[in-house]
Give the backbone structure.
Amino acid sequence: MSLLLFSKIAWASGVVAWFVMRLPFQRKARRMKVSDARHRNARDMTLLTISSTGLGVIPALYALTGWPKALSYTASLPQVVAGVAVFLSALWLFWRTHRALGRYWSVTLEIKDSHKLITSGVYERVRHPMYSAFFLWALAQALLLPNLLAGLSGLVCFGTLFFFRVGREEKMMREAFGAEYDAYVARTKRIIPGLY
Ligand code: SAH
């Protein structure tokens, strides 16, 4: 098997593993009543579409057809090995965030009935570890897919979702949890422990 085929398969396996991992949590979350869905709007939906285009549609198109050929280069073995390692760490972190958030997790921004603020486990030092996991996934995509468009589309498109969403999510959490959230914000960072 060529290194290119291996790295494309590694990327696709990571995406499938993430999808399968998420299924039981999706089922669990659907059973929860939503008490505040004001933030589940067209803007949130647009951001989710942009993010899935960059993490799914564009790289899948490249993996299957090689398009856009002019932007391809040859990846080295260390680059591919690093890509696999980063994808594995993203999946591990996804698993931890889903386990920690349980039924309070949602794809769109919303507050559930009897929603509790989770501040332990992977939520102890950063407020958005699931977004950290998505950035790790996007980084793995850049390492595994040796094409400037397909490789970088994840970082650009997920980055767009993150930067247009995170402030609104924190505002929603502040409205729901008040001083408890302020204290949590004061002792944590957003996505990188100790840094940002
Ligand atoms: N931004 C978080 C969660 C993403 S899922 C992360 O990156 O890990 C988005 C939903 O999770 C939001 O609608 C919100 O209701 C919920 N949520 C976010 N942070 C939470 C927390 N610390 N405790 C409980 N629910 C949280």
Notes: The radius of gyration is 18 Å. The chain has six helices and two strands. The longest strand covers residues 34-36.
